[in-house]
Design brief:
With about 425 residues, the chain is an alpha/beta fold. The chain folds into two domains: about 110 residues, Urease, subunit C, domain 1 (Roll), CATH 2.30.40.10; about 290 residues, TIM Barrel, CATH 3.20.20. It has 13 helices and 17 strands. The protein has a seven-stranded mixed sheet. A four-stranded parallel sheet has the order 5-6-7-9. Strands 11-12-13-14 form a four-stranded parallel sheet. A hairpin with a 2-residue loop joins β2 and β3. α2 runs parallel beside α3 and α11 crosses α12. The two termini are about 30 Å apart. About 50% of the residues are buried. The protein binds guanine and fe (iii) ion (FE).
Length: about 425
């Protein structure tokens, strides 16, 4: 049996309220599956090799539940327009480039490497509408050790005709061709991905809902991100009272559904998410960059909704989930101010929980480094920063969230395997 034993200051998010901290502890996995965190080395492992990381922090790696792989080349650019204009002006032309498989290979290899180097080992990702580039993306993620779900995007209306749009028939055919080719992947699985309601005809939505049921597939999309988008959806679906119903009506709304943003989801829409078990993916960077709004993340949590975090590159401008966590905390503070100081903000442990355990829950994991979880971990050496006094482990984690530390991530483990060691 293969045993992995990591020694260091082990910090994990067992609950949103409190960090679990074991100084000089042992994080142990057998055959890639965690058996536990121990203050001393259990007898049964005496003599087994220990990776001793000294005073380094050993943390859960991140789950990024919403990002757009073909927007990686435009990361950090073109955020001077609101959503719908941003899509037409910058995004659709950038995604159209992925008709070229060679380009896709180069870009996606670089993206997969950068994700791992930043400690993101689980993703739910949008590809473009291109089947071949989507399969290349899945290959590159799997090769780099990134696990999770990838979706070939469906869009048969309101795209860029001749550049980035399918016919309904092409969308159907290519989705089936893509799913037929997904069987060989071990760590990366398909997720159905209608881009958002304005991008998909009713016929296509009905097809995808049927497919989700028939092949037992999860679904990801966008919801109530921007007010102009919502007004458009109302025009397109006058029979639906609210945006979410355009997904629910076609069987795309259940406890494996991910909905990015939900900035403007009101109490009724949030209740529909809670009842169905839909996961909200909060993308604070993107919401600010595109002037979409400030999602009421604290209220969603209080109401008992499932909430995880997404970088939403390239609406979001940060791939590192440390930055994404800090952005979510800041957004919750902006919301507190907007709400007349009536709502709380996210604490650092809560932000950390959302970026790690809450995202991992989508993949069936228990919170923190629970026994039975696949080993997903980051080893982080933070001792190069000046300190005015000795810091607690919780203070060190807080600083990691807010302060970029080049080369601090020394090793990354994903699904039980070491997938990155700093050079
Ligand atoms: N809604 C539809 N497509 C997109 C996209 O690519 N990014 C964001 N942020 N919202 C969308
Ligand atoms: Fe998005």
């Amino acid at each position: 049996m293969a045993v992995t034993i990591l020694k260091g200051t082990i910090v994990s998010a067992r609950s949103p309220e409190r960090l679990d901290i074991t100084e000089n502890g042992y994080l142990i996995a057998e055959n890639g599956v965690i058996t536990g965190v121990f203050p001393t080395l259990p007898e049964q492992y005496a003599g087994a090799p220990v990776e001793d990381w000294g005073n380094a922090l050993i943390l859960q790696s991140f789950a990024d539940l919403h990002l757009h792989a073909p927007q990686y080349p435009m990361l950090g650019m073109g955020m001077d327009l609101p959503l719908l204009e941003w899509l037409n002006t910058y995004t659709f032309p950038a995604e159209a480039r992925f008709a070229d498989s060679g380009y896709a290979r180069t870009v996606y290899r670089q993206l997969a490497r950068e994700l791992v180097e930043n400690g993101t080992t689980r993703v739910c990702m949008f590809s473009s509408l291109h089947t071949d580039a989507t399969l290349i993306l899945m290959e590159e993620l799997e090769r780099a050790g990134v696990t999770g779900y990838v979706g070939k995007v469906n869009m048969d209306r309101n795209g860029a005709p001749g550049l980035l749009q399918e016919t309904t028939e092409e969308s159907r055919r290519e989705t089936l061709r893509w799913l037929g080719a997904c069987g060989d992947f071990r760590l990366v699985k398909p997720i159905l991905t209608p881009r958002f309601t304005p991008s998909c005809t009713d016929e296509l939505m009905a097809f995808l809902g049927g497919l989700a049921a028939k092949q037992d597939l999860p679904v990801q999309s966008h919801l109530s991100e921007n007010q102009a988008e919502m007004a458009w959806v109302r025009e397109l679906h006058p029979d639906c009272l609210q945006y979410w119903e355009t997904y629910a009506k076609y069987g795309l709304w259940n406890d494996r559904t991910l909905m990015a943003h939900c900035v403007w989801s009101d109490q009724r829409e949030r209740a529909a998410m809670k009842e169905a078990g839909v996961t909200v993916v909060h993308c604070a960077d993107s919401n600010q960059n595109l002037c979409s709004g400030v999602a009421p993340v604290r209220t969603m949590l209080k109401e008992g909704l499932k909430v995880a975090l997404g970088s939403d590159i390239a609406g979001g401008d940060h791939l590192s989930m440390f930055d994404v966590t800090a952005a979510a905390i800041r957004a919750s503070k902006a919301r507190r101010i907007m709400d007349g100081w009536e709502t709380d903000f996210l604490t650092v442990p809560e932000g950390w929980y959302l970026a790690t355990s809450a995202g991992a829950a989508y993949f069936g994991e228990q919170p923190g480094f629970a026994a039975g979880n696949p080993l997903h971990a980051i080893v982080l050496q933070d001792d190069r920063l000046p300190q005015s006094r000795p810091l607690t482990a919780a203070e060190r984690l807080e600083r990691c969230v807010y302060r970029r530390q080049p080369d601090a991530i020394r090793a990354v483990f994903s699904a039980g395997r070491k997938v990155y060691t700093a050079g």
